[in-house]
Design brief:
By secondary structure, the protein is mostly helical. It is built from seven helices and no strands. The longest helix is centred in the last third of the chain and has 18 residues. It is globular.
Length: 119
């Protein structure tokens, strides 16, 4: 008899939602992604919206393709150094030149200034 603890109950929905958010932020349709990963769009929809577990191969392909940090979902009580959003933003910043980065820097400075309490 198998004495392992099989009471594993992990909700995949938040990771599926992160995959969907990353896909849509890149302007990619589910059908386009389905062609890239060679899976049916309905299967991808079930992963994104219904929390269906993907195969390990597909899981790794999706999280690496979209730069998703799964630590924040697997270890929710542990402090995550960089969230998935931060990792995606870092990847996008890497493709910008200095002129484009100066626009981003000015925007961030404006946001930080807006957060400061008024005197």
């Amino acid at each position: 008899m198998d004495a392992r603890n099989n009471d594993f109950d992990f909700d995949f929905t938040p990771i599926g939602q992160a995959i969907k958010k990353a896909r849509t932020s890149q302007g990619m349709t589910r059908e386009q992604l389905a062609r890239i990963v060679d899976y049916d769009p309905r299967h991808l929809q079930a992963i994104e919206n219904e929390g269906q577990y993907p195969s390990l191969e597909l899981f790794i392909q999706l999280v690496t393709m979209f730069n998703i940090s799964v630590d924040e979902y697997i270890f929710p009580q542990k402090e995550v150094k960089k969230s998935s959003v931060r990792r995606r933003l870092d990847a996008q910043l890497d493709i910008l030149d200095d002129r484009e980065l100066s626009v981003i820097e000015a925007t961030v400075n404006g946001l930080c200034k807006a957060k400061e309490p008024e005197e």
